[in-house]
């Protein structure tokens, strides 16, 4: 409530409050109206009366409380109603006229209340003071501060000044931005009084005192913040007094912090200490404290009973004081304590001693506990880690503490590693590194695995784009990984190789992807991981199942070098240390890597322009260390590619070799007679030149290299006549040949004398072409020279002998094959050299000398060359291999040699172009010998396999007769009686098996022989048409089962082919159906030409039809298509005996065709597509009859034809379908609308065929497979492939498209013809 009357009226019973407000109002004491201020509740307050009441120490507490309540109400009402800005409001009037009038009375009232120990009244006065200052300006606040500070200085004890201190502190806190503390006069006395109050037992009082001290210090209102004249007015006495009060401030504050259990007190105390710690005077005190620690320790040891506080070092006191705060449940208190510790540890020259003191006081243990319980509170984690980082600078004393808290540090590591650029990532990693480094054996395998996994994820998550971490973090992560790999528990962790593999790879990846590769520090540390990982991958382990993972780690390191480091080497490198680091890693891989890794990496370097790059490095960085490293790597690369004996030549003189490649060439131009050092250096240069020539990585211009090499040859060849090292001579020959071969296309000048010298060395000196890896360019140049074919033939003979032990490549106790078949085959296929002539020269020589084993070796090489490059058969034929094979067949009688010869003949015939088979007489002679050999084989009952090879050869000879080559050889085959009787014997034996013949597949002797006989019959049928033409009566093959074989040519009767088709194996059905299709095509063509009738009985023909009808729906598309075509041919003859059979099966066939064409699924079905030609042929044959069966018209009604047309598209139209519609149109089964639609469809189809740019076609030149046969057991696969490729039933897409276009043209022609007729 506000006062309803004046204060003096209520106390003296004066007249009531006048109702007329217009009259000037005065209180009962007669105070003027300007001092009586109206309130918001229509009351008034006389400021004089209020001041008198407040100032009177004898005023009753009740009166004071009532007055203060009304004053507070008046202030609050004005503030809440927003009327304080009005000129007649209570607050506005007070602010304008009397702002300081109540300051003194309120302070005296506060002092009186404190003297009375009236806490409620003291609290009420304090609240009114705060409300009043909030309403008035800053000068009032400063007045209050001055008066309250004076009151505190004059008071005896602060025990009763709790609310006064609270009010004082709030004023300092709330108005710190708008007030000046100069109004506080005696700061020294005030501080002394406040510091004395810290020793009082009240926690609440100490908290308020600490808050006031904190605010005064923050506002620079402390004794040591006065002007210099005020502070040092007493000279040294003033300084001593300030030092004393400063030390008391620290010690009393720390003592309170040590003893208090209140978090609020701790917060205020820590805040004060943080402010004090920033003052110079306190820094001086700490210096003094640090300097006197030793003296105090000595004094304490002599007087152990002395426990006075001043003798306790401030550092120790602080360490004890913060322990309670570190264990507080308030994170704010913990953070403040950590900040305080951090500030003291960072301070000044004595910080090392302070750190050790803190460690001795076990502060690290408390911080580890705070860290453990932090619950991932980021601010707390950061503060703890920063303090621990400071403590870790005292290495020796901190090691034990760090070991105890290692598990806690690991948990923090896992946390901070997940946050990119976390501020304490480097500090945590540094702590982990310190523990791993200095506390050997502290990590368990589980902890080691956890650290490795965390660091791997840290590095891996930032392997693209930004580095994602501080550079220091990356460096520390690399160092920790290295220490892990060195640890004893590394070999016990199964997953570690995989983690190291990922980390090492992504360490480099993160550097290069973030464009940090120019930073040498980062690159060197990532290389550090790779090197240590490589060492780790080669260490022995106790777990046998880790070996594969370590092998994978080594492979990954090599791949990392290939992906990142080799491309980096091709850049403009500016830092020699980084380059040396990379080369050291390469050296480690080549020197200590596994055989597979070292060999593969050596070849990778050699093929990556390593030699050019390395000499470029030497030109930029001419230092001795880099030069030695480069030549050592050269020697190791040579070790892996050429052999250790070649690498030793470089290692022995690596310190004597120059850095410039031109200087290396100059060494070759000197005569080395009796100069061992020069000779050794020249040998090293030759090795370098040779290894670079193998990979096309020349270190100098070819012309300069050739000139130097020619000079070396001319100067030194005569000095070692008869004593030349075989390996050195081979190296010189091959190097010279390689350079000459490279320069041959440029018509470069050369020394004829040097060339002649080289040829003499090749001819008369001992050298070995197989002793080292050979450049194909060198080989090609050597075999172009007619002058040295004879000595080269001996080298190739050695190759043939060595190759016989391994069919794919030759190994001569070297790291890699020196001369392999692939290189030899490529030499043979080029055709620009005399290699094949040399090979045939060798064969002719060994045949003449009777060296059968060598002849077999040469034949094996020829066979393998043809299998690698089948087109090389043309070169062999043109060089006269047929004559050599003819000689070989007559020279030796062993089955092994004959089989090798037979396989060669087969491969040549299968792979060669018909244009290269021009030696008719040689082929005829060879054919006759093979036929004679076949007869001998039958007589001696030798292996069936050799017979089958010969049958395959005869099939190919007959095949070429259709191309107008080898016709005389084909006649010899077709008319050979032994071959005819062999065919009869096999066929009769097969037919005698009856239904059991199906069990004799091509894997059985009888089944395989039957397949070859059937294939021979097929090619014979095709050859008969080509070479005998009109001299053969094809209907002679229509023999009855009781007739003898009346023809004198090679072939199988029709009824026997039908038996084999009905009872034979799947493969036999395919070949026999092909034979029948070919036979009926020839019979039909001959009958059409000669107009002859059938020479077989109707019953014979009906039996054939029955067999064909049974296979018209066979699961094999080839058999089904062939049988349908045969049946269509027979129906096309329109014999009377066919009428009845057509009614039985042909209708069913036509229905199947209509169903297939009338559905989209039928047109897209592969099974129907394979039978479509035969089915269409049968229906077309029926449509061509003079009297078309009635059911044909019913089956192709308009609605059916419309349905078929609706399902046709330009993509599924075939020549057979067009042919069918043409015959339907001819027979008037199509309406004009059908014809119009088909016209449009066929036009689209023809346009698409013309627009196609990619056409899959068969090789019309020879129709060969790309590879030769593998062995005798697989010959029939090549023959069947050849048979099907030449058959009309298996045409290429180009032939099918041409056939379709022809049928479309015929359809259009027939359509125009009918339209003209109508």
From TrEMBL:
| One record GO biological process | meiotic DNA double-strand break formation
Which stretches does UniProt call biased (Polar residues)?
13-23
Write down the superkingdom of origin.
Answer: Eukaryota
> Which residue ranges does the record annotate as region Disordered?
1-23
Q: What is this protein called?
A: Protein PRD1
Species this protein is from: Rhynchospora pubera
């Amino acid at each position: 409530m506000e006062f309803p009357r004046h204060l003096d009226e209520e106390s003296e019973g004066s007249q009531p409050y006048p109702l007329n407000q217009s009259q000037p109002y005065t209180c009962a004491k007669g105070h003027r109206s300007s001092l009586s201020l109206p309130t918001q509740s229509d009351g008034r307050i006389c400021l004089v009366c209020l001041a008198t009441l407040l100032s009177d120490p004898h005023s009753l507490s009740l009166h004071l409380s009532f007055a203060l309540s009304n004053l507070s109400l008046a202030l609050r009402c004005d503030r809440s109603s927003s009327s304080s800005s009005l000129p007649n409001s209570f607050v506005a009037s007070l602010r304008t006229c009397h702002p300081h009038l109540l300051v003194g009375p309120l302070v005296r009232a506060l002092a009186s209340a404190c003297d009375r120990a009236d806490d409620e009244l003291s609290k009420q006065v304090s609240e009114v003071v705060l409300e009043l200052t909030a309403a008035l300006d800053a000068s009032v606040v400063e007045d209050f501060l001055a008066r309250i500070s004076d009151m505190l200085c004059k008071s005896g004890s602060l025990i009763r000044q709790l609310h006064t201190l609270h009010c004082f502190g709030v004023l300092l806190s709330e108005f710190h931005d708008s007030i000046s503390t100069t109004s506080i006069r005696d700061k020294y006395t005030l501080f002394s009084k406040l510091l004395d109050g810290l020793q009082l037992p009240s926690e609440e009082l100490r908290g308020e005192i600490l808050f006031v001290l904190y605010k005064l210090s923050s506002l620079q209102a402390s004794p040591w913040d006065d002007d210099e004249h005020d502070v040092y007015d007493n000279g040294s006495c003033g300084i001593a007094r300030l030092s004393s009060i400063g030390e008391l401030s620290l010690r009393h504050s720390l003592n309170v912090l040590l003893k208090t259990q209140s978090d609020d007190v701790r917060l205020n105390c820590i805040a004060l200490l943080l402010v004090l710690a920033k003052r110079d005077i306190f820094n001086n005190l700490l210096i003094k404290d640090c300097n006197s620690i030793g003296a105090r320790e000595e004094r304490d040891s002599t007087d152990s009973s002395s426990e006075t506080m001043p003798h306790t070092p401030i550092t120790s006191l602080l360490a004890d004081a913060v322990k309670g705060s570190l264990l507080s449940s308030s994170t704010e208190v913990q953070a403040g304590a950590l900040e305080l510790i951090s500030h003291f540890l960072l301070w000044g020259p004595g910080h090392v001693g302070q750190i050790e003191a803190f460690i001795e006081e076990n502060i690290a243990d408390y911080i580890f506990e705070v860290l453990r319980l932090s619950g991932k509170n980021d601010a707390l984690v950061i503060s703890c880690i920063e303090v621990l980082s400071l403590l870790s600078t005292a290495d020796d004393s901190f090691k034990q503490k760090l070991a105890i808290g290692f598990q806690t540090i690991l948990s923090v590591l896992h946390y901070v590693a997940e946050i990119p650029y976390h501020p304490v990532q480097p500090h945590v990693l540094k702590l982990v590194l310190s523990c791993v480094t200095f506390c050997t054996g502290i990590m368990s395998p589980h902890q080691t695995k956890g650290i490795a996994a965390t660091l791997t994820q840290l590095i891996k998550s930032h392997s693209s784009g930004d580095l994602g971490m501080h550079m220091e973090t990356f460096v520390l992560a690399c160092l920790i990984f290295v220490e892990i790999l060195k640890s004893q528990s590394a070999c016990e962790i199964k997953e570690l190789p995989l983690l190291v593999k990922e980390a090492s790879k992504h360490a480099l990846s993160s550097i290069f992807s973030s464009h940090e590769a120019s930073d040498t520090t980062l690159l060197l540390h990532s290389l550090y991981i790779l090197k240590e990982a490589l060492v780790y991958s080669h260490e022995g382990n106790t777990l046998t199942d880790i070996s594969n993972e370590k092998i994978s780690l080594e492979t990954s390191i090599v791949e990392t070098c290939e992906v990142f480091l080799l491309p980096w080497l091709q850049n403009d490198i500016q830092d020699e240390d980084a380059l040396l680091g990379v080369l050291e890693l390469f050296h480690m891989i080549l020197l200590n890597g596994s055989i597979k890794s070292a060999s593969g990496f050596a070849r990778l370097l050699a093929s990556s322009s390593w030699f050019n790059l390395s000499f470029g490095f030497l030109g930029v960085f001419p230092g001795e260390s880099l030069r030695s490293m480069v030549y050592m790597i050269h020697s190791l690369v040579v070790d892996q590619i050429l052999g250790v004996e070649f690498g030793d030549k470089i290692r022995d003189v690596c310190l004597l070799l120059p850095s410039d490649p031109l200087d290396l060439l100059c060494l070759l131009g000197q005569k080395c007679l009796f100069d061992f050092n020069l000779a050794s250096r020249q040998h090293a240069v030759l090795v370098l030149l040779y290894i670079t020539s193998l990979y096309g990585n020349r270190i100098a211009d070819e012309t300069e290299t050739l000139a130097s090499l020619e000079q070396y040859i001319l100067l030194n060849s005569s000095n070692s006549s008869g004593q030349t090292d075989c390996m050195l001579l081979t190296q010189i020959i091959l190097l010279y040949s390689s350079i000459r071969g490279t320069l041959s296309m440029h018509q470069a000048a050369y020394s004829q004398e040097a060339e002649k010298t080289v040829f003499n060395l090749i001819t008369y000196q001992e050298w070995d072409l197989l002793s080292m890896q050979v450049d194909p360019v060198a080989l090609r140049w050597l075999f172009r020279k007619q002058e040295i074919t004879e000595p080269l033939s001996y080298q190739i003979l050695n190759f043939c002998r060595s190759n016989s032990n391994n069919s794919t490549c030759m190994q001569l106790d070297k790291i890699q094959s020196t001369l392999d078949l692939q290189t030899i085959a490529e030499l043979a296929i080029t055709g620009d050299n005399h290699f094949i002539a040399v090979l045939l020269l060798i064969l002719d020589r060994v045949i003449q000398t009777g060296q059968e084993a060598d002849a077999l070796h040469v034949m094996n090489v020829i066979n393998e060359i043809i299998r690698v490059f089948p087109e090389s058969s043309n070169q062999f034929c043109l060089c006269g291999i047929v004559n050599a094979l003819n000689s070989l067949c007559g020279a030796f009688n062993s089955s092994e040699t004959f089989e090798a010869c037979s396989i060669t003949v087969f491969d040549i015939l299968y792979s060669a172009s018909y244009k290269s088979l021009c030696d008719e007489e040689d082929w005829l002679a060879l054919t006759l010998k093979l036929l004679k050999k076949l007869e001998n084989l039958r007589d001696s009952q030798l292996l069936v396999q050799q017979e089958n090879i010969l049958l395959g050869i005869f099939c190919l000879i007959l095949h070429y007769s259709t191309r107008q080559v080898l016709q005389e050889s084909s006649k010899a085959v077709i008319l050979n009686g032994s071959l005819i009787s062999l065919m009869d014997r096999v066929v009769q034996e097969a037919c005698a098996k009856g239904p059991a013949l199906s069990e004799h597949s091509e894997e059985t002797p009888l089944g395989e022989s039957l397949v070859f006989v059937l294939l021979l019959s097929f090619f014979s049928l095709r050859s008969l048409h080509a070479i005998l033409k009109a001299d053969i009566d094809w209907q002679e093959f229509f023999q009855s089962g009781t007739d003898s074989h009346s023809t004198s040519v090679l072939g199988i009767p029709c009824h026997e082919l039908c038996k084999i088709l009905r009872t034979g194996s799947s493969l036999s059905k395919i070949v026999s159906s092909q034979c029948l299709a070919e036979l009926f095509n020839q019979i039909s063509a001959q009958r059409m030409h000669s107009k002859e009738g059938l020479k077989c009985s109707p019953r014979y023909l009906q039996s054939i039809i029955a067999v064909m009808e049974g296979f018209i729906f066979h699961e094999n598309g080839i058999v089904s298509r062939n049988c349908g075509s045969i049946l269509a041919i027979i129906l096309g003859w329109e014999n009377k005996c066919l009428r009845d059979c057509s009614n039985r099966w042909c209708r069913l066939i036509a229905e199947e065709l209509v169903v297939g064409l009338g559905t989209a699924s039928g047109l897209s079905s592969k099974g129907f597509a394979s039978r479509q030609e035969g089915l269409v042929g049968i229906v077309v044959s029926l449509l061509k009859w003079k009297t078309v069966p009635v059911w044909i018209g019913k089956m192709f009604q308009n609605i059916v034809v419309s349905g078929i047309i609706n399902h046709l598209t330009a993509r599924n139209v075939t020549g057979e379908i067009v042919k069918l519609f043409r015959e339907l149109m001819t027979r008037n089964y199509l309406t004009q609308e059908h014809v119009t639609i088909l016209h449009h469809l066929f036009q689209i189809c023809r346009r698409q065929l013309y627009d196609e740019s990619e056409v899959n076609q068969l090789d019309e030149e020879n129709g060969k497979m790309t590879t030769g046969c593998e062995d005798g057991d697989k010959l029939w696969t090549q023959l069947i492939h050849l048979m099907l490729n030449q058959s009309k039933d298996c045409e290429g897409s180009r032939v099918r498209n041409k056939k379709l276009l022809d049928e479309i043209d015929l359809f259009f022609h027939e359509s125009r013809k009918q339209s003209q007729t109508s």
